[in-house]
Amino acid sequence: MKRPLIYVVEDDEGIREVYEGAFEESYDLRMFECGKDFFEAFSVKVPDLIILDIMLPDMDGYTILSKIRETDERVPVIIVSAKSDEISFVKGLNKGADDYMAKPFSILELMARVKAGLRRANLYVSNTGDFSVDRNTYKIFFRGRDLGLTLKEYKLLDYLIGNAGVTVDRETIFREVWGENFIGETRTLDMHIAEIRDRIREAGGGDVIVTVRGVGYRFEAK
Description:
Blueprint: E1 5-9, H1 13-23, E2 28-32, H2 35-42, E3 49-52, H3 61-71, E4 77-81, H4 86-95, E5 99-102, H5 107-123, E6 125-128, E7 131-134, E8 139-142, E9 145-146, H6 151-162, E10 168-169, H7 170-178, H8 187-202, E11 209-212, E12 216-219
Parallel strand pairs: 1-2, 1-3, 3-4, 4-5
Antiparallel strand pairs: 6-7, 7-8, 8-9, 10-12, 11-12
Helix pairs in contact: 6-7, 6-8
């Protein structure tokens, strides 16, 4: 079974050793002492969860968090910091953190919060290739980037992804996405598909929706 990937950004060697002892057996743990090293890894692969310190040598954790959220709204981030005042706590959450713990902290409590964060992230999220479908927020991500779909576009792409590798005929798509009582032009489907393709290309993806002439469409994860 694949172990969840966790990135830790922490410049204190002693705390990194605590993390290593607590998490390395159950998780794929990668640790970074500064923001620069973290972003080099983050640009290659987005982890399943991030544990983030605030006071770091090259850039503060708030800046790192803001940059993370510019490209990925989904990955859970837990701040663990010596800044324990209420203002820092609220600032971290407002910047996009999912949780905040003050140092000194209980490693058992942090382990529980990591499990909870991973569970919440995966409860409504399914992954197919480079695509992640978040059924809690009605968003679909390509390599961590929100495609910015309308609700109908979301439902259409979600349905095609859910039937990946299968050619779905137009009548079935209309029934499942628009409803049995849909009345309108059949070109509506083609227009929605064209818009979804544009959004995927804008995010750096290829043409994963295949047109099967005279039948319908098929999603093929690359």
